[in-house]
Amino acid sequence: MTDWTTADIPSLSGRTAVVTGATGGLGYETAMALAGAGAIVILTGRNDAKGLRAIEGICERFPDALIAYEHLDLASLSSVADFARRFAAGNEQLDLLVNNAGVMALPKRQQTENGFEMQLGTNYLGHYALTARLCRCFAGRRRLVSSISRALRTAPARSISMICKASVPIVRGGPIASPSWRC
User: Class of 10-165 per CATH?
Assistant: First the structure.
């Protein structure tokens, strides 16, 4: 299906989507496409200034977009809990959760405020906690999309094995197709 474009997205009017890491890159483009299709889109990120610029950019292209920015730092489980509480209090349902945010190739080892290695804590544990906390908000036909970096292909097999032993799901070589989450 090489001729597909964002114009092929059906109407998402009345549907609510949350996109993590929506202040730049793939998350921003995803939020823009969803807003263009009529979804109510909540952009999340840890940099509020970039979040506001993202909102301005989407509104410039789609002046009638129903979008908002909310602070969410996936490296902080308390930030995840706060976001989930705010979302549940202000929204009746969630139709689409796009787990996109992530950190990559940090120059030196860092830890989250909860003591996890930064990349593992942000890219995996933060998204897992967010998904678990938002499960009760999912509408009847829910969609969960999680992106994974192709840089995983460059990781030594030994580190992949160690990560898998820690019960973190890893798919080597590409995105996870159609994950089935039971909430």
Answer: alpha beta
Dihedral sign computed on CA atoms, order 68, 74, 79, 82: positive
What would the two tokens of residue 72 be? 């969410």
Of 95, 75, 73, 77, the closest CA to residue 144 belongs to: 95
String of DSSP letters for 35-61: HHTT-EEEEEES-HHHHHHHHHHHHHH
**Rounded Cα gap, residues 152 and 169, in angstroms:** 12
Domain ranges for the chain, please list them: 10-165
Q: Are strands 94-99 and 40-45 parallel, antiparallel or unpaired?
A: unpaired
Question: What does the pLDDT profile of the chain (183 residues) look like in tens digits?
Answer: 578 899 899 999 999 999 999 999 999 999 999 999 999 999 999 999 999 999 999 999 999 999 999 999 999 999 999 999 999 999 889 999 999 998 888 899 999 999 999 999 999 999 999 999 998 888 776 677 777 655 545 544 443 333 333 333 333 333 322 223 222
Residue type, 113: E
Strand partners, 111: 117
Strand partners, 144: 97
CA gap 86, 182 in Å, rounded: 23
